[in-house]
Amino acid sequence: MNKFREKLEETNEEPELIEEIQLKKPVEQSPSAAKKFLTDGVVSKEEATRMLPFILFMAFLGMVYIANSHFAVNNIRAIDKLSKEVKEQSWEYKSLKAELMFKSKLTEVKNIVDTLGIKELIEPPKKIVVSENEY
Question: Which positions, given as ranges, span the membrane (predicted)?
Fold first, then answer.
């Protein structure tokens, strides 16, 4: 009469049979974790030899990383040293420029030249004219 209900009853019986079959399988005993750790160690010899290229690659990358950081630190130190030197040279340039501007004033030049016995001109300078025939 109700075919749908009959199908449900048939499908409900089958999983119980499968569960009974699964329960009857013998359980395989695996060695305990402590015994495996003591006999094989953390990693067996085969696993260690299989992982050796990767470990060497990681060690190489670590060395490259350390060398790169040392190189970067040395570059930063050199940059700091050069920037301090540039600032010092800039200060020296500015002080020398100010000193030159002060010494090139007319009054300062007059005082320096007076010690040599040279006096300031009172008359304007004379122009010397050379004709083309005299040349």
Answer: 51-73
**What letter does residue 25 receive in the DSSP assignment?**
S
Residue 66 burial (C-beta neighbours within 10 Å; 0-12, 13-18, 19+): exposed
Map residue 107 onto helix, strand or coil.
Answer: helix
Judge contact between 120 and 110, C-beta under 8 A.
Answer: yes
Crossing angle (nearest 10°) for helices 106-114 and 45-103? 70
* Whether 63 contacts 56, CB under 8 Å: no
Condensed to tens digits (0 to 9), the pLDDT of residues 3-25 reads 766 766 666 555 555 555 555 55
d(CA 22, CA 14): 13
Q: Of 73, 42, 70, nearest to 62 (Cα)?
A: 70
- What type of residue is 126? K
Q: Judging by beta carbons within 10 Å of its beta carbon (0-12, 13-18, 19+), is residue 75 exposed, middle or buried?
A: exposed
| Continuous H helices in 1-135 | 3-24, 33-40, 45-103, 106-114
Cα distance between residue 123 and residue 121, in whole Å: 6
